[in-house]
Design goal:
Shape: elongated
Number of helices: 15
Number of strands: 24
Distance between the termini: 59 Å
Helix content: 25-40%
């Protein structure tokens, strides 16, 4: 007998009682195993669903019961909507079917992403989370024609930071169902694991992820790739020796010692290949310093090292994928705290390249630590430089969480980043680097530069980028301001609420593109 959830009204003592009728052979979830399948909406005037190949085979194995249930269980499944069926297959006590939208979906010029890939990520995430809520331990996932996207959606959707909670979400293992594309699936798992590593670092409280703890965590994650990776955890003495006065001016207010983390991934067969340089802002907690931030939402500033987190996580992922490319990652790690030793508004400090900086706002600290890291990075003669930072609230105001803002002096580099973001769905958007903004940071009363724009809040993301440009001489440089995409409420349907780890997958896809282009 096909098991359906039937509600039978039984009048008892003047009230309605609901009973569930189950097949006598139904498994009571003892093996904790579930299945996620996909279904497309039919095109044209004909209403209904078009099952994926894996779902159609499953339906055939159970004599069409799935199709029958989908027809009678409610309206046609729209994109991201779901149904759960119980007891229809002996191996899968719970089967979730999720809508994939139109079969004709693809790269959308107006949205700047591949809609089909995004729909598959969302469907896999929705299905896996539904089954996780039922406390299933293992879930098989329909590849839906794109196993990599399905794997990304499943792994990203299941991630939950509950390390410090006594009651934790059910841990779910996933595997590909009904497809031979295990290579694509494993690639998707690695992409998602990279982003989840960044989310883990960003979400963890600042007393757990100090500069030292951050560096140690990355070192541990890199241990299995030691034959291709070199890690240097530079100390305060080394930072002082390098004359990184801008970086030191931020760190000096905290009791936590700064760390300059340097990663070398040597994946290219040509050891002399010019490296891709990735630089990430690593403020493990940003109070604003003497220019103290308002207390509401200050706790979110534990994720102000999102640039360092995404950069380091992307290099871990590149190593896991064995990408044939050389990458160097730099992460200046410190806290920005107020104290008797902290930098004061109006102080003048000197960066590694000798330029003096008037620090009128100690809460504009990210550009200071990046300035010295960018100067140091040029010594490696990189083929391209990409720095990533939760740099300005103005970026959040400008783009919100829709896309990462990109400021670049290179059309070629912009094209590579944009191409990668279309594939991952973690979008980027180009912003201006006009001399108009440069004049606002070079007009300083006491020094060569001012760390805030002449007109304060106007064009704040653009003046911050213009400031960084003063420390760049390379022809291919891009600054990614990720302040707007730092966290997720419900904008990205395959991510839970919390720190997002964006744009880790775009950085990985970008590096993979460079690797494949030689």
């Amino acid at each position: 007998m096909t098991m359906l959830l039937l509600r039978k009204t039984v009048p008892t003592a003047g009230r309605t009682k609901y009973c569930r009728l189950f097949s006598a052979s139904q498994t009571h979830l003892n093996d904790r195993k579930g299945l996620v399948l996909g279904a497309f909406e039919k095109e044209g005037e004909e209403a209904g669903l078009h099952l994926t190949e894996a779902a159609a085979r499953f339906d055939q194995n159970i004599s069409g019961k799935l199709s029958e249930l989908l027809k009678i269980s409610g309206p046609t499944l729209k994109k991201g909507r779901s149904r759960i069926f119980y007891g229809i297959h002996k191996d899968f006590p719970c089967v979730a079917v999720v809508g994939l939208g139109k079969t004709s979906a693809g790269v959308c010029g107006s949205e700047h992403w591949d809609t089909s890939k995004e729909n598959i990520r969302q469907a896999a995430s929705v299905g896996c989370r539904l089954l996780q809520d039922l406390e299933l331990n293992h879930v098989e996932v329909d590849g839906c024609g794109d196993a990599q996207s399905a794997a990304e959606g499943a792994a990203l959707g299941l991630f939950q930071y509950d390390e410090l909670k006594s009651k934790k979400k059910t841990k779910v293992t996933t595997q590909l169902h009904g497809s031979s594309d295990s290579v694509g699936w494993q690639k998707g798992v690695k992409y998602a694991d990279g982003q989840n590593l960044a989310r883990l670092l960003m979400e963890a409280p600042a007393n757990h992820i100090t500069p030292t703890a951050f560096a140690n965590t990355i070192e541990e994650r890199m241990a299995m790739y030691s034959e291709r990776v070199t890690i240097n955890k530079r100390s305060l003495a080394w930072i002082e020796q390098q004359q990184m006065g801008a970086f030191l001016s931020v760190s000096q207010g905290s009791e936590e010692p700064p760390v300059f983390l340097e990663l070398h991934y040597n994946g290219s067969p040509d050891s002399k290949q010019a490296p891709l340089l990735l630089v990430g802002k690593g403020i493990t907690f940003d109070s604003g310093g003497i220019s103290l931030k308002p207390s509401p939402s200050m706790d979110a500033m534990r994720a102000d090292m999102g640039g360092a987190a995404t950069v380091c996580a992307s290099i871990v992922t590149a190593a896991a994928l064995k990408l044939p490319i050389n990458i160097i990652g730099l992460a200046p790690l410190c806290e920005n705290m107020p104290s008797g030793k902290a930098t004061k508004p109006g102080d003048v400090v000197t960066a590694k390249n000798g330029k003096s900086i008037q620090v009128d706002n100690t809460d504009a600290e990210g550009r200071l630590v990046l300035a010295d890291a960018l100067c140091y990075g040029h010594t490696f003669n990189p083929r391209a430089i990409v720095n990533v930072a939760t740099l300005t609230g103005a970026m959040d105001v400008a783009l919100g969480s829709a896309a990462t803002g990109v400021f670049t002096n290179s059309d070629w580099l912009w094209e590579q980043l944009h191409k990668a973001s279309v594939v991952t769905g973690d979008r980027v958007w180009r912003m201006p680097l006009f001399q108009h903004y440069t004049r606002q940071v070079t007009d300083s009363q006491l020094a060569d530069l001012n760390n805030i724009g002449k007109y304060s809040r106007s064009g704040g993301a653009c003046t911050a980028a213009a400031f960084l440009r003063e420390f760049v001489s390379a022809p291919h440089w891009a600054h990614l301001d990720i302040a707007g995409v730092m966290s997720n409420k419900d904008e990205v349907p395959y991510l839970r609420k919390g720190m997002s780890g964006r744009p880790t997958r775009t950085l990985v896809e970008f590096a993979a593109g460079l690797a494949n282009s030689g």
